[in-house]
Amino acid sequence: MKRLFHFTPAKVWLISSLILVIFIQVNCNAQNPAFHYKKIPDKYKISQPDQSSYEQKIDSLKGLAFDLTNSLPQGYVTDGSVDYTTYLQQGIQAHANVIFPNFPVMIGPRGLTLISNSCLIFKEQSKLIMMPNSQSNYQAIRLNNLKNVTLYGPIIQGDRDQHKAAKGEWGMGIWIAGCDGVKIYDAHISDCWGDGIYIGKGIAPSHNIALYYPVLDNNRRNGISVVSVVGLLIQSPLVSNTNGTMPMSGIDIEPNTNEDDADNIDIENAVTYNNMKHGILIVLDRLSGVKQKSLNIRINNHIDDGSGIGFGFHNLTGPDGKRPFAGHIDIDNAKWKNNNTSFSMYKSFRNGAAIKFNNVRVLRQDGSSYQPGDNDVRKQLQQ
Asked: 23: pLDDT confidence band, cut at 50, 70 and 90?
């Protein structure tokens, strides 16, 4: 496949003077900061995710799994209006494999804490509804320092529209910290006070995490935050309408410290739609430090439609004197359209990692197509 442009360490240092954006597209609404929720077009929806690879596994587990309906008190309601956190937690703690009730259930801000070597199955009508609360920090489903956990079809609805305080931004749908061997299939997470899914560090960085067909909509901070992980596959995500508090991006790869990792990350067939800031954002300045870090990130077949910025690199290196990164970041077969800005690069681009863009297309709002190349990069460097 034709390579459109390649930033080598020798060339990349020149871009440190670039403060705002490359490939800028501005329409008549660019100055309007208001966010407008948009219904996801049918063409971006996966109506029936390819479940053939795990349907047989689910069927085999159902006969062994404990039905959490049996943990609920007598006279339980099925409309999601009563907090059953304690009852669900008791069932999860006592059984490795569980099936959620086939109706909506309310949980409180303490959320559900999972255990290692477990499997959780959501039925067609299963749903966790976060009780309206004033907490700045909550996790509807919490995975801390666990091994070998699988979730099938989790559906989570946050409380952003009924949240009882204005503080904080850390109300998460699914929290994964310091885990090894987590697989999540067909998650639908919406309306969280913070992120739909958060992947970060516990005792150690997370390892070997896989998200298949996740749908994240109308979450307040990010759809998916990737903070510390070695080995991550995000397959065919649909992330839309992220808005409320910064960074307001569909997928945000942003380590917190030099103790974190952003290595062996593979994002395939991502669709990001109408996110307030970025479709996908990579921020790496706080990762640099005493320890040299290896970056290996590949993003293939990304489509962004209508986010403020289709794709962004921000703060790709820390202060002078820090160790440069090893590894590479590859952006292949991307299409960014209907953006105020198709691609942004903010602050320094000097980090030692090889940055490659292959087969990137920009579709302007007037319907015309633009394919940036090396000449466009040189023009920006001369400005």
From this structure: very low
Decide if pLDDT at 236 tops 80: yes
Q: How many CB atoms lie under 10 A from the CB of residue 278?
A: 29
Strand order in 249-253's β-sheet? 21-24, 341-346, 309-314, 278-283, 249-253, 222-226, 197-200, 170-177, 137-144, 112-113
Write the pLDDT tens digit of every residue in 154-173.
Answer: 999 999 999 999 989 999 99
Distance between CA atoms of residues 220 and 265, nearest Å:
24
Take residue 110 and report the two structure tokens written for it: 């303490």
Nearest-angstrom CA–CA distance, 237 and 338: 19
Rg (CA), the chain: 21
pLDDT for the residue numbered 198: 98
What is the 3-class SS of the chain, one letter each residue? CCCCEEECHHHHHHHHHCCCEEEECCCCCCCCCCCCCCCCCHHHCCCCCCCHHHHHHHHHHHCCCEEHHHHCCCCCCCCCCCECHHHHHHHHHHCCEEECCCCEEEECCCCEECCCCEEEECCCCCEEEECCCCCCEEEEEEEECCEEEEEECCEEECCCCCCCCCCCCEEEEEEEECCEEEEEECCEEECCCCCCEEEEECCCEEEEEEEECCEEECCCCEEEEECCEEEEEEECCEEECCCCCCCCEEEEECCCCCCCCEEEEEEECCEEECCCCEEEEEECHHHCCCCCCEEEEEEECCEEECCCEEEEEECCCCCCCCCCCEEEEEEECCEEECCCEEEEEECCCCCCCEEEEECCEEECCCCCEECCCHHHHHHHHHC
- pLDDT-based confidence at residue 380 (cuts at 50, 70, 90): very low
How far is it, in rounded angstroms, from Cα 11 to Cα 101?
57
For the chain, first and last CA: distance in Å?
Answer: 30
In tens, the pLDDT along 63-84 reads 889 999 999 999 999 999 999 9
Q: Which amino acid is at 78?
A: T
From the list 42, 39, 45, 33, the residue with the least C-alpha distance to 276 is 33
- Residue 64 contacts by C-beta under 8 Å, 6 or more apart in sequence? 97
